[in-house]
Amino acid sequence: MKAMILAAGLGTRLKPFTDKHPKALVPVNGKSVLQRNVEYLHQYGIKDIIVNVHHFAHQIIDAVKENNGWGASIAISNESDEILETGGGLKNTAAFFTETNEPFVLMNADILTDMKLDEMIAQHLLHKPLATLAVTERSTSRYLLFNEKNSLCGWLNEKTGEQKGDSGTKKAFSGIHIISPQIFSLITETGKFSMIDLYLRLAKNQQIMAYDHSNTNLIDCGRPESIAVAEKMYL
User: Fold this and answer.
1) What is the CATH number of the domain that holds 118?
2) Predicted confidence (pLDDT) per residue in 94-129, tens digit
3) What is the rounded distance in angstroms from the CA atom of residue 89 to the CA atom of residue 49?
4) Which of 94, 122, 123, 232 is the most exposed place for a label (fewest CB within 10 A)?
């Protein structure tokens, strides 16, 4: 199985660190979150990884080279000219994933978790949805909405009241996906676009399933105050 780590974001919530560095290289007890997520994927036998880069792209490229990919085979999807957001970034790597017909992992660079990825993969292989999204019942401002069949049906921003799609059970997205490669034949969007918007369009005819891991740890390292919390948990 292959994986993609999304590391192209500007990391504006992590200023002043991201004034001079990409968010994927923010350290947690001496290891960048990128390294920790590469090692996380290692635990589940995933060592064929592609990383997209934009903000201070050369720093990530150099870190990968200097550390021999931390034991993984890491390809780079360079978005230096234009950041493509999550959906555009994935579409740009289609050739990397369509060499085989296997599902793959997509994850944000700035989250840390002890979720059992193998159990999420097992659920995906059992039910064979187009995509499986890791979620929890934590409080947040934006939620994915799932119907009684555990399928994505909508999105809600509680701060603004904006809602897309249908109403359903609120779940907070964890930034980890298991995706079937068939998704690439269904993408009609071009340029910059969001994975969530893509999912909401596809969910009308395809199953996008939730995997609830509320009983595990999840830390969003995209904020300075979260780094101190992470350092107590990840030594």
Assistant:
1) 3.90.550.10
2) 999 998 889 999 999 999 999 999 999 999 999 999
3) 14
4) 232
Long-range contacts of range 59-67, CB-CB < 8 Å, 24 or more positions apart? 59/21, 59/22, 59/25, 60/7, 60/22, 60/24, 60/25, 60/34, 63/25, 63/32, 63/34, 63/35, 67/35
Question: In the predicted model, what is the mean pLDDT of residues 160-175?
Answer: 96
Please state the domain count of the chain.
1
Residue 148 has which token pair? 């009684």
pLDDT-derived band of residue 36, with 50, 70 and 90 as boundaries?
A: very high
Residues 6+ away with beta carbon under 8 Å from 92:
52, 77, 79, 84
How many angstroms from the chain centroid is the CA of residue 79? Answer: 17
Length of the chain: 235
Confidence (pTM):
0.96
Domain containing residue 25: 2-233
Question: What does the H/E/C string look like for the chain?
Answer: CEEEEECCCCCHHHCCHHHCCCHHHCEECCEEHHHHHHHHHHCCCCCEEEEEECCCHHHHHHHHHHCHHHHCEEEEEECCCCCCHHHHHHHCCHHHHCCCCCCEEEEECCEEECCCHHHHHHHHHHHCCCEEEEEECCCCCEEEEECCCCEEEEEEECCCCCEEECCCEEEEEEEEEEECHHHHHHCCCCCCCCHHHHHHHHCCCCCEEEEECCCCCEEECCCHHHHHHHHHHCC
